[in-house]
Write a sequence for this structure.
């Protein structure tokens, strides 16, 4: 058969067969709507806080005690200790420098001579008074003469007491020609040399103590609620209520970490920063390297605060507008829940009450959230 006739016939027959198949087998379209797939959301279990809240601060390590050293007697400097120089360390009782004691020794000799003379005069007057007393009992002298002897004895006793005080003052002045360290410490600055004449009360050095260091820590007013410190005009924190403080800093390529305690607050609000300043105390033992700390080091401080009850830590992504969070119930339904925010941290939020460790908190809900909407929760690790 001619191909020009055969090909069109095949196409026509195929079309007829297809049309018949469509007529005999019509599509069955369902009238019910398609099943809705719930959106997936990430959920976590809230972390129950089982440790105190931490308040972050920072400050500089400074000596707890700093004094200005001044001479108590006038004179010319005769000797200076090798330790009496900037940065020099000393122990309590060490002689830092000596003032020429010639004048003080001469004054002490005069005071001792006057005391001896007063002792002799007192002895003479005691004898005169005793004789006058005997004569008075025999009515051999007048009352006026007896009272005169009594007055002379009182004057001699007063003079003897005055010379005793003068001798003690002279001894003290001689002792003060040796200027000794009042505590274990270091010379921060000095302005003295051998042969220099100094007056009484003249400042010659700045001393710092090395037994206790302090760090002045600024604390925001709203953070004070997490410390629960008693307020007083003195600012002293009772020993049993002193929070622990962890100090950390880096020096010479080494990380320094030490434990301290908060001992007092300045009991007033700083007018410039509107903050409260607290002071952490760090005892230093030169024989224990674990207590040593570089002076002047800038440190970070973590202050141990209160222990919150039924408080949970959640990522900040779990917060919804209006201080609410999203929870998923046992039926996989999403609900907005009002919570009490105890504290906002850098990446987390601390809430109190309203949850259990088994609760499911949504951390990845979309923008459109409706109470009661069904979701497919996907558990993820809490951060």
């Amino acid at each position: 058969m001619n191909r020009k006739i055969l090909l069109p016939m095949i196409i026509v027959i195929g079309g007829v067969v297809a049309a018949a198949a469509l007529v005999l087998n019509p599509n069955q379209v369902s009238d019910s709507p398609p099943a809705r797939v719930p959106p997936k959301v990430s959920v976590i279990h809230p972390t129950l806080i089982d440790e105190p809240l931490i308040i972050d601060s920072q400050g500089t390590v400074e000596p707890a005690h700093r004094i200005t050293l001044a001479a108590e007697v006038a004179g010319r400097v005769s000797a200076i200790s090798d330790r009496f120089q900037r940065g020099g360390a000393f122990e309590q009782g060490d002689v830092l420098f000596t003032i020429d004691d010639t004048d003080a020794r001469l004054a002490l000799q005069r005071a001792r001579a006057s005391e001896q003379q007063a002792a002799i005069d007192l002895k003479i007057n005691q004898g005169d008074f005793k004789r006058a007393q005997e004569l008075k009992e025999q009515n051999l002298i007048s009352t006026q003469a007896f009272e005169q002897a009594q007055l002379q004895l009182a004057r001699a006793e007063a003079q003897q007491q005055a010379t005793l005080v003068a001798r003690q003052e002279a001894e003290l002045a001689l002792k003060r020609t040796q200027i000794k360290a009042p505590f274990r410490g270091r010379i921060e600055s000095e302005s003295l040399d051998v042969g220099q004449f100094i007056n009484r009360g003249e400042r010659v050095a700045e001393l710092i103590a090395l037994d206790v260091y302090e760090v002045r820590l600024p604390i925001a007013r709203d953070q004070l609620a997490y410390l629960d410190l008693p307020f007083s005009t003195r600012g002293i924190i009772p020993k049993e209520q002193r929070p622990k403080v962890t100090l950390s800093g880096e020096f010479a390529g080494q990380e320094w970490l030490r434990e301290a305690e908060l001992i007092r607050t300045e009991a007033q609000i700083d007018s410039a920063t509107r903050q409260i300043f607290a002071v952490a105390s760090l005892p230093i033992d030169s024989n224990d390297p674990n207590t040593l700390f570089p002076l002047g080091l800038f440190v970070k401080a973590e202050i141990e605060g209160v222990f919150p009850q039924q408080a949970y830590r959640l990522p900040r992504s779990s917060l919804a507008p209006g201080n609410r969070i999203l929870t998923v119930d046992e039926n996989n339904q999403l609900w907005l829940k009002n919570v009490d925010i105890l504290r906002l941290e850098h990446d987390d939020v601390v809430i109190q009450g309203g949850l259990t460790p088994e609760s499911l908190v949504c951390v990845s809900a979309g923008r459109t959230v409706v109470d009661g909407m069904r979701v497919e929760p996907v558990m993820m690790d809490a951060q």
